[in-house]
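Usage example:
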Amino acid sequence: MSEYEVVIGLEIHAELLTKSKIFCGCTTEFGGEPNSHCCPICLGLPGALPVLNEKAVEYAIKAGLALNCQIPGYSKFDRKNYFYPDLPKAYQISQFDLPVCVQGRVDYELEEMQQSTGITRVHMEEEAGKSVHSGDNILGSDFSLMDYNRTGIPLIEIVTEPDLRSAAEAKAFLEQLKSILQYIKVSDCKMEEGSLRCDANVSLRLKGTKEFGTKVEIKNLNSFRAVERVLEYEIRRQRQVYEQGGSIVQETRTWDDSRMITVSMRSKEESHDYRYFPEPDLVPLEIDLNWVRSLKEGLPELPLAKKHRLMEQYDLSSMDADQLTTDQEMASYFERTVASYTNGKVVSNWLTGDFSRLLNTSGLEISKVKVTPQQLAELLRLIDEGIISGKQGKDVLTEMFCSGTAPEQIIKDKGFEQISDSKALEQISADIIAANPQIVQRYQDGEDRLLGFFVGQVMKETKGKANPGLVNALLREKLKATDS
Amino acid sequence: MELFQRTATELQKMLACSQVTSEQIVQAFINRIEAEDSQMRAYLTITAKEALGAAQASDLRRKQGQPLSKWDGVPIAVKDNMSTKNVRTTCGSKMLEEYIPPYDATVIGRIKNAGMPILGKTNMDEFAMGSSTENSAFAKTHNPVNLQKVPGGSSGGSAAAVAGFEAPWSLGSDTGGSIRQPASFCGVVGLKPTYGLVSRYGLVAYASSLDQIGPIGHRVQDVAALLQLIAGHDYKDSTSVTVSVPDYQASLVADVSGLRIGIAKEFFSEGLNNQVKSAVMRAVQNLSQAGAEVVDVSLPLTDYAIETYYLIATAEASANLARYDGVRYGLRVAGDDSVAMFKHTRAEGFGTEVKRRIMLGTYALSAGYYDAYYKKAQQVRTLIRREFEQAFTQVDVIITPTTPTTAFGFGEKKDPLEMYLSDIYTVTPNLAGVPGLSMPCGVDSNNLPIGVQMIATHFSEPVLLRTAFALEQIQRKGEFNE
Amino acid sequence: MINKNEVKRVANLARLRLSEEETTQYQQDLNQILQAADKLKLVDTEGIEPTAHAIPLRNVLRLDMTSESLGIDQVLKNGPEITKGYFRVPRIMEE
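Running the assembly step on the lines above writes:
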């Protein structure tokens, strides 16, 4: 059987986090009453004209810089013509031959291996509206309802080189891309809200050949899970077609969630003729390279660099560092915590462990968490000092998560404070030893495991507040002492 | 003399001297419209109530000594492709028959802020596509000089309203001659400003890179004053320039000594009516006798202008008119699915000429033809622009006929190409982005007005206005002498 | 020369339903106009930049500030078919 090589290229759309739309002053806020965020410009009323949002240009260039792109000094906008009910002007203002950013690269890691995927271009365009369908899906609906609130939100479209060789690579690339865009705060990249969307071009070729196979475009890979699952399906489908001696048709396919397969949307013959031409209502951009330089200097440390630094600086595992740096908020939380509590490894364990578990179960974003990094550092210090046990620490953290109360307060309120006063514990231990002479005898005769009995008794007496380490040490000492 | 026969400048002076109220002026025009417009059909929508309200408000301001703009209370007519809040804006199309905009075009805002009552919205070729106003979906406007003739187009209603004394002045729009050609046919003055001088915000687009709004009036000074009012930067139009607007009244000096006038033989070639030719040459002679220097210039690419224009204008139009899909406003004709609905709506909503241009423009942009047609036309446009720039190093003004013939009869130009050729002298300024003015320079043997076109370089409206003013003074002296 | 199928292709791109009669008419018109436009081939445009704008402006930008939207009533008032605050359209066939 022949060996096939997978060739995948992605096209990613990300909504930019500007306050106002790309060509008008309407808000970009998510939601709102249908058609409440519209004006003559984004509705495409006769006579209305676009004016470009400066911030959208800045964010697009920042994205390009973070993706290691070149920023050409000259860029322009074009009209992409097609009719669709969600597109008010029946053309989308986009960029055709002179995008704002070209020739970049994203580095990322997949199973500890260094990977790099080329970025062909990043261009700016306007978002279309949203349709609500009367049936379960677009095809089964008698009618659709149009809401133009989303129309005109600025988008960047990022096009990769056909460098990806597996569904897993595509997913890892996409995760890194999302992470980068979030780090530089140009997009919130919420796939579930549609602010990050992905299409893919997939083809197979015989290993060792240079020429590309016939490619199929897959639309609407709208979650990370979908990216992997749908691409794996499509790769399998194409391989089967080839192995059965068939050939792939150039077409556009989409994922059918109910049948778990990709289905054809349109063939190449039916493909659009977009009739791009320069947008006469907008003038070209001449980009000031000094401005670009200052934007570049202003970029924060990006996720991969941060990962490597944290691994080095705090002796973290690659997996933990990944977990800490994927989300910029998490990375920042980590760094703010280690500023007050220097043992990075301990902080990492807590953040990737209990803290992350609490985040998941509560569904909170880090920015909304009530526990401050200083409070977390304080909690870890209290554990170190033996004021509470590690196990108690977990309970305190849960409480901190819910109420935002400082750890000392919770410990006081719940009576979590450990008895680390050795004088008090010495008295209790002595009493217990005195009350159980037979067991003392058996312990001294070699039944070591009976130490647990004494520890348990002390804990019972102190309602679990005794510092277990201290109790252990004390009892060993005392039981030995009786022996002599 | 009746009030409605006065020029805008005269009305302004009468208002300033309290000889008349704005309400009296507006009422006089409304009476005139009511009496005449059923024949002439210059208006598609008459806003008598709003105009009277604005007039009364202006009179009250004047009475109470509140701040007034210079043109406060002087009424105006505007072409029906400028968005007027709460007043329907049809563009002469069935597609927008019931469309009521929720916003004002920038020029409309300026007119309202100046306290000028708007008498109504004037007839036009559908979406400004045409040269006779015959393409209006609603009415044929008749040339007030001779009702058997077309008024020209596409701003036929705006030119006829002024020439027929149904408005003292008006606003038109000009993409390839749509102000100058009807001004010429109706015997009034019309100016297409430099591209970018007047905001296009709220002007329903035909061909965005060529469209400009401009004034039409009885006299050169009216046109200068109205230009003053509408010119200037608008942040809502990205193609609006930030140059400071000169005082156009100051350029109304009847002195052309030392002015260099260019004559290009390409504008006097075959197809030009002899009477038009001699009238234009007489105007040149008049100016020359007044001290202007006449220089021959060469503009060989003029021969390619009309084809260049039609490819660029229709390509842009095919995109600009795509938004009329029956979803958010305008006509909707039912269909089983959205695509069918689009097709039915557009088939019924647009007239023959609009569809023809959409077809042409779509073709010129479509895969495989873009380079041969659209891109080629844009490259020729570059050369035409350069040719003009070169010519304007030698001369201050180029003088040409506005149109090859005087006003023609209804239904006379059946062939689309033949109709397109009536713009042959007016499209080049739009392609080059330079200003052009048309003013009367005589009549033919049928007493139909002949227009002379003056073209200057970018932002040289003062030179145009000075030349036109000088010629107007000479003409008036002649009239008195005769 | 443009054939009928091309006229139909263009009409479909432009979302215009044409009758047979109109198709024939526009075929004729387009051929006539394009034939005239072929004249442009005589102009040497080798290496000439196309002009998209009459005036060479650059970098016209606005600040990222929000302004009032129209308000739902104004947005919907010209809509041919409104349902629950949305513009309603007949079934969308995936294109």
